[in-house]
Amino acid sequence: MPTPSTQFKVENYVAKSFIIVEGKKNAGNFYIIRSGKVRLSKENPVSAEEPYTVIGPGDFFGVISCMSGHARLETAIALSDVSLISVENEQFGVLIQKNPAIAMKIIRFFSRKLRDFDTAITRLTFKDSVEEDPSHLYNIAEYYLKNKSYKHAVYAYQRFVQYCPNHPKREDSLKKLKALKAPFKIDDPPSAGSLSRSYQDNTMIFCENELGNELYIIQGGKVKITKIVNEEVLLAVLKPGDIFGEMALLENKPRSASAITFGDVNLLVINKQNFEGMVQAQPQLATRLIQLLSERIWTAYRQLENLMINDNIGRIYDTLLLQIEKQKIKVTPRLAHNFEFGVKELLNMVGFPSEKGEVFAVQLLEDKHIKLEQGKIICTDVEELEKTVHFYRKKSAMERKREASKNI
Q: Are residues 149 and 268 in the same domain?
């Protein structure tokens, strides 16, 4: 493997020049602005984003597509003559060693963007969701108590009493902890203070709405990420190498979801005190973190794009395309793709119950490019699938513009 160059290329653009274009694939670099101003825009901005932004010296763009390996998410145009530093994907570790502050700036920016996207997705998907607040820990505890998940109920009651000492429900929580034969005192986690930590199966690592100052890298085992919105919803199952908990560490806000072990788990723990030092000492850690954040931001962005498609059948088509894009499969004419799931699983991905989605499933299978084989979905031409999705996106964007013009 060739050694990455330690020299960064400088690129200059005159005013009104296009620097990057939304949708362009094989994006292998990102830019840091040396001088001048750049306008970033999207053809159809998703919820939680402004139609455009103007950035200047010290700011960066194109990192998400570069570090995730996906197509460009925005178009960048030079508003004035600009001078840019171009950083290739494989040069990121070199950049961190030369300027660790830029890595911290990118990580913090990504963390805020991911939280904004996650909040927008939760709001659009779960209408009854509320902002994270430690006082909501009581409701979480009540939910787990009602569902006889006593270990998780104890954890949530203990955190509620810890973070809300003056809350009217504090005495009730203490009584319930006593009835559950659990002390108010919260035990230190196993190996507290160490960079390594082990947890047994079905242990709550942290609970949504509690305060946090640690991020975790899974060394062994699996971790479930869940959120209670009327019922407990499984958001993800993470595996070795995955990072979680970084938003609370970087933003000092309550946890947006819970992390529960799925089998015995070994974790590498990074807190606020050792985080910046580790980023500088181990640039590969920052590179890995930014790669994971980039992938998660891209996925969240695509989820929002999907939710903004008004036609249900259009959302189904887009969900199929999303699975192909996640695998970074190059779309070429007449390329066929076998999905490892059937119609029922597809409807679950979109959030449709089987009875509601049956009519859409029939409509989907009327498409000559979509068929079922041994219960699995097959697309005989991925390029046609991509064209169909673009049609539904443009149709929805035009409908939104018409609605907006009516309200002026």
A: yes
